[in-house]
Amino acid sequence: MYKCIDFIGQNLAAVPLYHVTEASKDLPKSDFLKLLNSPNTYLGYEDLVKMTIYNYMRFGACYWWIDEDKITFISGSKGKPNHEQGAWTRLTYTTSAGQKTIDMNDVVMFVCFNPEDPLSVISPIEKMRYEILNEKDANQHNRAVFDNSVNPSGVLSFKGELSQEIFQQAVDKFNSQYAGSKKSGKVIFTDTNSDFKPLAISNKD
Prior knowledge:
Elements: H1 2-13, H2 31-37, H3 45-59, E1 61-67, E2 70-75, E3 79-84, E4 87-95, E5 98-103, E6 107-111, E7 113-114, E8 117-121, H4 124-148, E9 154-158, H5 164-178, E10 194-198
Helix pairs in contact: 1-3
């Protein structure tokens, strides 16, 4: 998974940058491009893009704090937005010197909002993992319903006492002929030594 994320980041970082305005299709020397090509003293454009993709996918959020002529990258694991009256107003993040709070107007956000809580974020990876697990659980449940006959339609009884061996043979024969989703709804045929009694009668019957 993380190799895929790194691959996506590398490919996005390799895409050429153009600053397009109404007056010009390309402003190669614009302040905006200069800032992206050299975000700060310790960070280049390629690393900025790769870190942004990784944090977005891993934590569901990351932030660029644009302060004059530099971009400070803030990981989704360290930054925490503060909201007032249903809107994010400030961003608090942890540094080596302690916590720092900045105005959200100076921040570029890359976030994946949680549909169950619009003021929180969720990792796309976690979201996919939950969906896969839920799908797996649903498939296992549906399979168990048919395999175990959770809602039996009747009871098959036998006359007299059966040995464990004969009983197991009867169970195996019944399962081979009637168990499973592809065989559901089949008419059950019994011999003179057995009897099938329905537990309930449908409105149609």
